[in-house]
Design a protein that fits this description.
With about 400 residues, the protein is an alpha+beta fold. The protein is about 30% helix and about 25% strand. The strands form 6 sheets. Strands 11, 14, 17, 18, 19, 20 and 21 form a 7-stranded mixed beta sheet that branches. Strands 1-8-6-3 form a 4-stranded antiparallel beta sheet, with no helix packed on it. β9 and β10 form a beta hairpin.
C-alpha cells in the first residue's frame, strides 16, 4: 500500500478540506492521474496518484484534513482490470439510455414533453414560471397544469409552495478566509472611499474601431481591463503611497505595479495577481486576464498567483452595480472599483449630451494615503481613461496598441 498524504500547500496553512474525489473508491488509477481536489483557505489544488493501482479512500468528501494526513492509499499490487479503467464511468451512459422519452424545445434550453409543450403554446404560459419534475429538467403535463392552477405563485428552487424549509451548509475554507479577511480589513484600516466618474466614450470608440484587428493579431478580445490596469499602473507610479502598505512602523513602497484582479467563482471571491503591469502591453494584460480568470473558474490557481499584489481592481459593473464602496484587500492600502457603464445626460461645452458614464470608487487606508493623494490618483486615472491616447504613448498610438 502506498500512502497518499496531504501535501504542504503554503506557509501558515495547517488544514484543508477534501472537496471531491475525481475517481471512485476501488477504481484503477494510473500514475500521476488526478484523484482528488482539496481546498485550503486560499485556493483549491489537486492531488495525484503516485503509482498506478487501486484507489482506497482514507477520507470522505467534506472532511477536514491536517497537512500530512493520509488522504487515501493505492494498492499497487492489485491486478489491473482488463479493458479500460474505472467501470463506474459507464453508469451515466446507461442512465441516459433509460430516459429517451420524446421532448420538445419550448424556449432556448427548456425542454418539455409534447403534451406539455402543446398546453404551454395554447395557454401562452411562460416556461420559466414552470417547475419541471421530469428527468433532466423536463417539463411534464402535470407541471404545466400545476402552474396554471397557481397563477403568479412561484416557489423557491427545490421547494414546494408555502414551504418553510431552512437549509444549513458548512462554510468552505475559502469562504471562512474571505469572511475573516474582510472583517480584519474593516477593523484594522482607517478606510475611506472617494468617488469620481469617467466618460467611457473615447475608450468605446477605440475598442469599436480596433477590436477586430486586435483580436486578429493577438488572439484575445480588447476589453476594458487593459485600459484600467494600464491607467492604474501609470497613476501608481505617480502616487507611490497608493501602491504601498504599512508594515509595523515602516511603510513599504513598491517601484512596480503588481495588480490584483477580483474574480468571482462559484466557491467565492479570488484575487489573482498580474505581475509588473507597468511593463506589460495592452495585449499582455488581456491575455493574462483571460488566463487568470480561466484558472480561477477551474480552481487551477497556484499560491504564487494569489499572493503579493500591491493594488487591486474589482469590477462590480459586470453584475450591474452602479456604485459601491469596495473593501481593501489586505495588506494593500487601496482598491479601485469599476462599475456599470450607463448613459446619462451630461453638460459638455454648455450643451446637454448623452454620454456613457461610469462611476469609479477608490477605497484607501487613510493611515498611509492622504486625501490629496487619493483624489489626485483617481483624477489621474480618470484623465488617462478619457484620453486613451495618453496610455498608448509613442509616435503612433495605433501602432502602440496593435504592437505593429
Amino acid at each position: 500500500m502506498i500512502d497518499i498524504k496531504v501535501p504542504t500547500v503554503g506557509e501558515s496553512i495547517s488544514e484543508v478540506t477534501l472537496l471531491k474525489w475525481t475517481k471512485p473508491n476501488g477504481a484503477w488509477v494510473e500514475r500521476d492521474e488526478v484523484i482528488a481536489e482539496l481546498e485550503s483557505e486560499k485556493a483549491t489544488f489537486e492531488i495525484n496518484a503516485e503509482q498506478a493501482g487501486v484507489l482506497i479512500y482514507g477520507a470522505q468528501e467534506g472532511d477536514t484534513l491536517k497537512i500530512g494526513d493520509i488522504a487515501c492509499q493505492i494498492d499497487e499490487t492489485a491486478p489491473k482490470p482488463e479493458g479500460a479503467a474505472a467501470p463506474v464511468a459507464e453508469a451515466p451512459k446507461k442512465e441516459e439510455a433509460k430516459s429517451t422519452a420524446p421532448v420538445t424545445a419550448v424556449a432556448n434550453d427548456i425542454k418539455a414533453t409534447p403534451v406539455a409543450a402543446a398546453i404551454i403554446a395554447d395557454k401562452k404560459v411562460d416556461p420559466q414560471s414552470i417547475k419541471p419534475s421530469g428527468t433532466g429538467g423536463r417539463i411534464l403535463k402535470d407541471d404545466v397544469l400545476n402552474a396554471l392552477s397557481n397563477p403568479g405563485k412561484q416557489a423557491y428552487k427545490a421547494a414546494e409552495l408555502n414551504s418553510r424549509n431552512v437549509r444549513k451548509e458548512k462554510m468552505s475554507n475559502l469562504r471562512k478566509t474571505i469572511s475573516r479577511r474582510l472583517v480584519e480589513s474593516k477593523n484594522t484600516t482607517a478606510m475611506l472611499t472617494t468617488f469620481n466618474e469617467v466618460d467611457m466614450g473615447r475608450i468605446m470608440e477605440v475598442r469599436s474601431k480596433y477590436k477586430d484587428k486586435f483580436k486578429e493579431m493577438h488572439g484575445v478580445n480588447l476589453g476594458f481591463m487593459s485600459f484600467f490596469a494600464k491607467a492604474c499602473a501609470i497613476a501608481l507610479g505617480e502616487w507611490p503611497a497608493v501602491n504601498a502598505y504599512i508594515d509595523a512602523e515602516e511603510i513599504v513602497y513598491h517601484d512596480y505595479a503588481d495588480i490584483s484582479i477580483a474574480v468571482s467563482t462559484p466557491r467565492g471571491l479570488t484575487v489573482p495577481v498580474m505581475r509588473n503591469v507597468e511593463s506589460m502591453s495592452m495585449a499582455d494584460v488581456e491575455k493574462k486576464v483571460v488566463e487568470l480568470a480561466g484558472k480561477a473558474r477551474d480552481n487551477k490557481l497556484t499560491m504564487e498567483e494569489l499572493t503579493g499584489g500591491t493594488f487591486t481592481i474589482t469590477n462590480g459593473g459586470v453584475f450591474g452595480s452602479l456604485m459601491s464602496t469596495p473593501i481593501i484587500n489586505l495588506p494593500q492600502s487601496a482598491i479601485l472599483g469599476m462599475h456599470k457603464i450607463q448613459e446619462r445626460p451630461m453638460a459638455v461645452n454648455g450643451q446637454v449630451v448623452i454620454r456613457p458614464m461610469m462611476y469609479l470608487a477608490l477605497s484607501y487606508d487613510h493611515r498611509i494615503i492622504d486625501g490629496r493623494e487619493s483624489v489626485s490618483f483617481l483624477v489621474r486615472v480618470k484623465e488617462l481613461l478619457e484620453n486613451p491616447e495618453l496610455l498608448l504613448f509613442g509616435k503612433d498610438p495605433v501602432k502602440t496598441l496593435l504592437e505593429v
